[in-house]
Amino acid sequence: MTLADIYPTFRTASGFKLNNFKEERYPSQLQIQLQLRVSLFTSEENTPSPRECYPYPPSFERPPPILAVIIGINKYSSQEYNNLTGASADADAFEDYLKTRLNVPKQNICSLRDEDASRRAIISSFIWLRDNTAYHRDEAAIIFYFAGHGAQTQKPAEWDDWITPTGNIEMLCPSDIGTLTGTDGVRRQDEQGVVPGIPDRTISVLLSQIADLKGNNITVILDCCSSAGMVRSAKQERYTVRSIINPPAVNSHSDDSVLFSGSRGGRMALRDLSKKHQRSHVLLAACGRENFALEDPKTKRGLFTRHLLKALDREDIGNLTYVSLMHKLKMPERQTPHCEGDGIHWRLFNNQVSGADKSMILTKRDKEKQETILQAGSAQGITIGSRFAAHATNLIETHMQPNPCLGYFVVAHVDTLSSVLILPPDSPTFRLPILFYSKLDRLANNSIYVYSTDQAWLGSIFPSDLRSKLSVVLADTRQCCDLELTVLDRIVYFDQHSPLVAPYIGSRMRYTAEADDVETIRNVVKASLHFYYNLARSSPCQFNDVSMELHKLSAEMTEEFDKVFIPTGQNLMAEEPATVVVDEDAPLGITIHNNSLNRALYPYLFYFDPADLTIVGWYLPPIGAGKYAQTTKVDAPLPPRSTLAIGHGDGGATPWSFVLPPDVKKDLGFFRLFLSTRPASFESILQERSPFEGGPSRSVKSTVPQILPEGEWSVQTVTLIQFLAMSRYENLLDVLSKEPVWSPDNEQAILEPFTYITSNPGKEIRGKLIEAFNIWLKVPSDKLQVIAKVVNMLHAASLMVDDIEDDSQLRRGTPVTHKIYGIPQTINTANYVYFLAYQELFALRGTETSAPPRQPLDALVTAELLSLHRGQGLEILWRDSLQCPSEEEYITMVNNKTGGLLRIGIKLMMACCTTNVDIDYVPLVNLIGVYFQIRDDLMNLQSTEVYTSNKGFAEDLSEGKFSFPVVHGIHADKSNRQVLNVLQKRPTTPTLKIHTINYLKNVTKSFDYTLSVMANLEAQTRAEISRLGGNKGLEAIMDLLHVDASKFS
C-alpha cells in the first residue's frame, strides 16, 4: 500500500498533496505507581482486543494484528548527498517477512520507496497510522521501519526545552532532503528555502500522538545512523555508511502545520514534549549515536536488517522478547545495534501477554574457556556461593507458557560485572543452549535476623530445615534483629529495625498480615532481605564528579502552544536527607550531571520504598546486541561533561508528583543511582511487586557476547523525606466543582476482594464450556474475550455473596473472601463488579464493521441474574426455615441458580455468533447445569481428601444446605427427622457429619439414588450433544465430570 492508496483523492501529477489533518487533544490518564504514587502525565491503560494476524504456537495467546509503515530510500534527489544501494532491498525484505511469515495483509502496510518517500509523504505515513480507522486503541501492533540515511545537526535555539546529551538533534533523511522544491510539487516555506530532515522531536511528538490513540504497542526500527564524523574512514573498509554530513539546518517551525493539526478537527496544543518518549514505543536502532549503520555494496543489503531478519527467521517469535532478540542477534564486530524503551521486556510486537521476567540474568557457556558466565557481578550484589536456577528463556512462567528450571549452578568467582558459575557438588549434568538465563535462588553470605516474642510461632513459620534456604536467622533479642514480627489478635505487625529508615519514620510498617498466612509472612521477610541488602551495600569507589538534582517542573506554553516542563526553583536534593513538601499538583523531575572530562557513564536509577519494600526502575539505559553489547560501543547516556534529564527533555521518566496515602503525614523513600563505565544489567535489583500484594512475584546456537575487562562502578544514595502540605483545602470549592477524581489506586483497592477470589481459580468449567460451545457458534475472538470476562466477573461476584450467605469458611482451599476483607467490603465489591460487568457489555455492541447482537444484551443478562437470585433466595429460605423442598422444586431452584450463570455465557454467545444462529442450545446448557450441581452436592458429602482441603469436610451439612442427596434422604423416610435435626444444628465437628453421611449412604440409599440420577442426566446430555452434531470439547468436559459409581460403594 502506498500513500496514493491511502489518500487517492490527493494524488497529483507531481506527487502527493495531503489534506489538513486535525486532531483533538487526548489527555493522558495512566497513573504510575511507585512509592511516589506518580501523577497523571502518561497514556491510558491498555484494553487489549486482539484480532487474528499471524501464526502462533498452541500455548501462546493470539497476537494482535499488525499495521506497518515500511520505508526504503536508495535514491536521494539532491546531488549533494550520496545514494545508497541496499536500503530499498532491506525494506522489500522486511515487508516480505511481514507478509509471508506474519501474514500481514497488504492493506495493513504503507510502503514507500525512493522518490515516493518524500518528507511530506513520510510524515503522512505517521498520520495514516494515527488516524487509521480499522483498529481501535490497543487492537493492533504498529511497526515503523526506515532504511536510508540519518543525520545529526545543531538544535534550533528555540528548542531549549528539548534537552539532549550532546546538544544536537538527530533526524531521518527523506528522499527530497536538501532540495528547493519537494517531490510533491509544493514550495517549502523554510527560512533556508530547502527541504530539511525530519527531527527526532517531530518524530517523538507523532509517535506520542499515535500512542495516545492506538496504544503503545509500537515498534520503531531504524536502519540508519546519525553520526556526523569519520564517514570517509568507514567507507574505505568497502562498506557504505547510511549517514549524511552537513544536512540542512532545521527551522524550529518546520512542522507546525502538521503537529498542530489532527484528524478530528480543531487546533491542538502539542503533547507534553517533556514526556519520556520511550513510553510510547520500543526502538530497534542499527547502531548507537556515535557509530555507523553500514551497508555492503556487494550484497546490496544493510548489515542490521539482514541479520535482524535472519534472527527473526531462526527464532520462535512467540517466545522472543525485545531483550532476548538483542541477546540472540548475531552481528559483525563493526556494528552494535541498540534497543530502548519501556517495553523492551514485552513479547515482540505483542504487549498483551506476559513478557520477560526482569530478574532473569543473561548467562552464556564459553566453549573455549569451558566456563559458564553470568552477566552480573559484584556491582549487582552477586556473592560467591550464591545459587542460581537455569532457564531456557527469560519469559515469565505461566500456565500456558511454562519456563521450567533446568538445573542449578553456584557462583564460583565474582568480578565487577560478571561471575563464573559451576555445577554444585554431586549435581547431575543437564543440557543447556549457548545462551540461557539464570534466576537467583539463594544469595550466599547474607542473612536476615528475624525476632518475635512468640518464638514457638516464629519457629513454625520458619522451621529449621527452611531457614538456610530462606537465609533466615532467628534472633534471640530485639536488639540484634533486622525485622521484628509482633502477633496481636492473630494479626502480624512488622517492625523494620534499620538505621536507614527508623530514625525518620519509625520502625512499624503500615501493612500487616494474618498470623496463619505463612506465604505472605515469608515473602515479606524475603523481600526485606533483598530490599535492605541492595539499599545498604556500597561501591568500591565514588564518582565525585557526578551529581543529581531534583526540581519542581514548571508547565509552560511556548509560542507554538507546546506544553513543556522546565526545571524551576532550588535543588530539592541539595541536602542529605532531602525534604519535599508533598503537592500532588506539582510535577517533579531529576537531572543528572556528569562533570567528568573523560569518563562516559551508564546510569541506572532506582527508587526504594520501605513502606511496601518495592524497588522500581526510574531510568535504565538502552541495551546493545552483538559481540560489543557489553562494551562502550553501546551509547553512554552520560558522556563526559553532559546532562541527562529524567522527567523532562528527551530522556528519563515521566514527570511525577508525590502522593501520601490517607492518614499518612510523613513518608520516606530513597533514590539510588548506580553508575558503570560500561553497559551492564542491573535489573535483577528490581522488586516491582510488593510482598503485601499477594500472588506470585511473576535450543538455539547463538553468537556469545564478548566479555571485555571489567569496568568500574559506583553508587549514590539520596534519602527523600516527604511531608504533607497543610494548604490542601484552601481551594476546596474549585476542587469539588470538577469531575470526581477516581485513581487507579482507588480502583485497585476496592477491587482487591475480587482480585483475591479470582487469583485462586476453580475448575474453570464455565470457561471450558465457552470454548466448547464456540466450536458450534464461531463467535468473533474479540467478542468472545469480552463474554468470557463478563461471565468470570459475574461468577466471582456471586461466589463472594454466596459465601457470605452460607457462612462458608474455605473456597478452593483458601479462606473465603469476607473472612479476609470483611462482609461490608466484600458485598460492596461484589455489587461493584456486577456493574462493571454491565459496562463490559458495551464492547459487544455492533460497530461499523460488525453486526449488532440479535437481542438486547442487557435484558438477557438481567433476566438470568434475576433467575440466579431467585434460585439463591429459595435455597436460603429453605435452609433458614428448615423447609425441605421436593426433588422437582430442587431441580427448578438449581436451574435458576446454577443454570443462570451458565446460560449467561452461552446466550451471549448465541446473540453474537456467526454460525448455527437458529439452533437453541439452552436446553443442553440446562442439562449440564443440573448435572454439575447434583454432582457437586454428592462430592461435597463424599469429601475426598482433595475436596476437603479445598472446601472443608461435608461443608453443606455445616451450612444446613438442602443438597440433592439430603432432599432424597429426608423424603425417603419422613418419619425420621434426624437429618433435619442435624441440618438445624449446623455441625462443625466430623462425628455428627460422618453419622449423617453413613445414614444417607446405608439407610436411605441416597448416594445410590443420586448416582442413578446422575447417570441418567449424563446419558441425556451426551445424547443431546450427539443430536446437535457432536462436540469434542463438550464430550471432554463430560468425561472430566464423570463420576465412577464404583468408588462410592
UniProtKB/TrEMBL annotation:
Ranges where the Peptidase C14 caspase domain occurs: 67-326
Superkingdom of this protein's organism: Eukaryota
Keyword annotations: Apoptosis, Hydrolase, Magnesium, Metal-binding, Protease, Thiol protease
GO molecular function: cysteine-type endopeptidase activity; metal ion binding; prenyltransferase activity
Pfam families tied to this protein: Peptidase_C14, polyprenyl_synt
PANTHER family: GERANYLGERANYL PYROPHOSPHATE SYNTHASE (PTHR12001:SF44)
Family designation: Belongs to the FPP/GGPP synthase family.
Stated name of the protein: (2E,6E)-farnesyl diphosphate synthase
